[in-house]
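WARN  no MSA supplied for this record, continuing single-sequence
INFO  ligand: coenzyme A
INFO  echoing inputs
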Amino acid sequence: MPKDTIFQLESFRQATPYIYAHRGKTFVLYINDALLAKESTASLIHDLALVHTLGVKLVLVLGLRTFIDKKLGKQPASAFKNDWRITDAKTLNAIKEIAGSVKTNIEALFSIGLINTPMSGMKLNVVSGNYVRAKPVGVRSGVDYQHTGEVRSIAADEIQKQLDANNIVLMLPLGYSKTGDIFNLTSLEVAKHAACALQSEKLILMLDKFIAPGKKKQSDNHYNVNEAKELVKNLPKSKQQVKGYLDVAVQACLENVKRVHLLDASKPGALLEELYTLDGVATLVTAETYDEIRPATINDIGGITELIQPLIDKGALVPRTREQLELEIESFDVIERDGMVLACGALHIFAEEHAAEVACLAVHPEYQSNGRGSKMLSHLEKKSADAELNLLFVLTTQTSHWFREHGFKTTKIESLPMKKRAIYNYQRNSKAYSKAV
Ligand SMILES: CC(C)(COP(=O)(O)OP(=O)(O)OC[C@H]1O[C@@H](n2cnc3c(N)ncnc32)[C@H](O)[C@@H]1OP(=O)(O)O)[C@@H](O)C(=O)NCCC(=O)NCCS
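INFO  complex generated
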């Protein structure tokens, strides 16, 4: 089979579980103005159409700032206060015109559909409406913000009806009051409120550029809410824009949005890569803690076997059959991501000697050197301390230095618990190390 075909089949295998997992879920996508102003918008809309046909319910919130700035020309500094545009009647009229024009262009791009594919005949319905109730920002510190407003509520039920009817919902940064007034809002705020009101599975911030501060590797660009909050606190003033995005992500997660993706969508296909591959390409802020250690269950046996078999073959780990794993599963803990076991470790307790063995500690090769091994070991140490044990030991052939760096000292086989000595494999010739807990 040609290499290209093998690659395509492998990609399809990897994508399929994600297609299944995302089907029927609601995603709110904020598309920033700079991205919409690029020539690549057509291919972005094509990818969105594809995601929609794969069963995802899409709500798109469009950013307009670049278009407004262009239309109004150079504005004096007094036209802004606290990063809010002061919207006078003339500015509001310009914004209404721009909103109409950007919306129409996006509708036109969706009308092209999935051209050059077997699904080219499929009609994609895009709808918009008065879904945002707004209130005026009013007068603050003596500044009258006029037609600049804040989101008051989102007509989530109405939007939901449209999504259930298989329509794509477009939202603009305009809101309406009960008095019939129109307000200029921030798209990012509209997106956040929409995601919260719809309790959407994901809020995706599609940005023309985004570099996550602080992390070393793409596979490590995940923050839980608390980590993201800490990060925001420590960001310098020069990172104001990144701070704004992370702030929105934190607020959304605190209001029940499960995951917020901060995606540099300037690269072709970034959205598809983010949604349909294991690691994705975005920076992720999650409501639940990502990569948390949890006790293993019988359902993890397949994942653990996949993780440890190559290490068994290399002689780094003692062989274990599936049956053995089934018997021992309660002594295992795992770190899992989207169903894939990234790390595992077991604690075998020798109650009489108040000791425990660290066994089968392993981290998937692609996820090593990111602290997961240390995190798992600390977890097993804490578990031993909680169980009022005094000593941890390990038998290893290839990882002695790693354990020594984690405070383990060489020990004699004769000082191990009796039951362990009885089954010690002299041929394997593992070295023993121990640590007081
Ligand atoms: C040992 C292991 C669990 C560490 O996992 P990890 O997630 O990479 O660990 P951490 O990120 O906490 O630590 C990484 C550091 O340990 C070092 N390290 C990894 N394996 C090592 C080894 N065998 N000997 C010495 N140092 C080692 C790495 O080089 C890295 O150092 P650096 O940060 O200075 O580059 C992982 O390498 C593994 O699965 N090894 C194969 C299985 C095994 O031998 N298990 C122990 C049997 S009980």
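The mean pLDDT is 91.
INFO  checksum written, moving to next record
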